[in-house]
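Section 3.1: Structural characterization of target chains.
Under the original work plan, the team committed to producing a structural model for every single-chain target entering the pipeline before any wet-lab resources were allocated. The record below documents one such target. The sequence was received from the expression subgroup and is listed exactly as submitted; it comprises 198 residues.
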Amino acid sequence: MSRLSVCVMSMVVAVAAVSSSTLAHSKHVIEVFDVDTLTSTVETVPMAPAPAATPPIRIPNPIPGPFVMPAGFGCSFDVLASPEGKSYITEFDDRRMVISNAYVTFTNLDSGTTYVQHSTYKVTETLLDADRLGIVADGRIFFQLYPGDSGPFGTVGGDGALYLMEGTSTSTLDLGTFILTSFSFKGTATDLCALLAG
């Protein structure tokens, strides 16, 4: 018997002093009274099935072509990122997952110094509330952080930061300001700007 049916039955017995019949396991029973005669009838109403969860949707996530991260938005110099590989997005009812396997060549456009990163990771994004997005990244990935973001070593200042990270990081993005308000990680974080500066 459902909780709703028990409540309805208890009220009916107390007010009308009549007994109710036993409910079928998968049905609600609603007691219907004719106030003038105090007679009762029983209507059996089938319960609607519980809504099924939406099946996850997996779609390709096109890898962008080469793009420049300008000075002041990662390093003190312009950095060209040239990624190649594959990426997919899986959409669930309550979260989104991005899985990627790509090689990214980073180039200091002032000196020509390059570094190749093999990025292989899973990122899970979950809407925490109307204003915040939770982000969990597992694997090898690079992070571009802006001044004011929370980063692996505290608040990012100056020209921002680029980190090559391996392990698990958890961060929170403010959807109003697009600033990372928290950042924690377990693993290693390498300063990409320092690698490219030499």
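The two ends are 73 Å apart (CA to CA).
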